[in-house]
Amino acid sequence: MDQVIVQILNGLDKGSAYALIALGLTLIFGTLGVVNFAHGALFMIGAFCAVTLQRILTLSSVTEDPTRTDFLGNPMKIETPYVESWFGEAIGAGIIDWSVPLAIFFAIPIMMLVGYLMEHGLIRHFYKRPHADQILVTFGLAIVLQEIVKYFYGANPIQTPAPDAFTGSFDFGVLLGFDPLTIMYPYWRLVYFAFAALVIGAVFAFLQFTTFGMVVRAGMADRETVGLLGIDIDKRFTLMFALAACVAGVAGVMYAPIVAPNYHMGMDFLVLSFVVVVVGGMGSLPGAVFAGFLLGILESFASMPFMVDAIPGINQIIIYLVAIIILLTRPRGLMGRKGVMEE
């Protein structure tokens, strides 16, 4: 039973990343009808926003301490981060320690700008083009962004630690009545799940309860009629693209301590996230979230040793097998609108 609970937790952890990326993909497809293969690159850029802020906060001044010498008798050089010089050692060290959560506020304007420039400068010219053209141009854009990141940050993963307060593991089993130390789970993965739930809830609340969101939902259902009412729906859809980019970016920021950011991490998540969108239903926001968590849990259970021993490689293909079954039996996905992907 304890192993089952651990696999569910692992599945929710993976599913959180899948759901957040798929949510942004679905927002773009549902509003603009664009298949955005550059969305995984936005997740990667978000992760490197965390790396960048950490590097900025650790910029240091070098001074010599005459009271301390090295083995050659020379005064030792001491590096002091500027934030510690400005705010004091304790506060400065705390700011550096919490660089990943603080990177959310650093990433939001950057991701909004990147999303706006992508939509305004390139993708809007492909609205009426076939999906194959959209896939090719956005996939090419993803490769360009990937190579830019590789040029500036290198090819190796960059460790981006979580705050010290969230290092170590939480004794989850005690809450469920198990013996102590039976079910231990990393604090930061629990934080990521809670963060994902918060972001998903905020996006749904924004679309459901704000005037802006209601107009967007109406535009998703009937774009022409909303335009005839004198509403600049194109401008609102551009802002939705920026919002989708922001969702992917903050998802990448908070995922940085779980998987060290590297230039190809966007591609690693992109294919899986598209499978999630297809299984959930193209254009269905609830479907994207539900399928993200469902496939995350299935992938986690398929990774259990007895499953891998019984069917070698099942953990690598389980998501695609589920996608094949769904597409054969229900082409529009689990929660997709009737007629979508069924022509």
TrEMBL record:
Spans through the membrane: 17-35, 42-62, 90-114, 190-216, 236-257, 269-298, 310-328
Alphabetized GO MF terms: transmembrane transporter activity
Pfam families the UniProt entry points to: BPD_transp_2
Topology of the protein relative to the lipid bilayer: Multi-pass membrane protein
Subcellular localization: Cell membrane
Q: Matching PANTHER family, A to Z?
A: ABC TRANSPORTER ATP-BINDING PROTEIN, BRANCHED-CHAIN AMINO ACID TRANSPORT SYSTEM PERMEASE PROTEIN LIVH
The name this protein carries in UniProt is Branched-chain amino acid transport system permease protein
Q: What is the lineage of its organism?
A: Bacteria, Pseudomonadati, Pseudomonadota, Alphaproteobacteria, Rhodobacterales
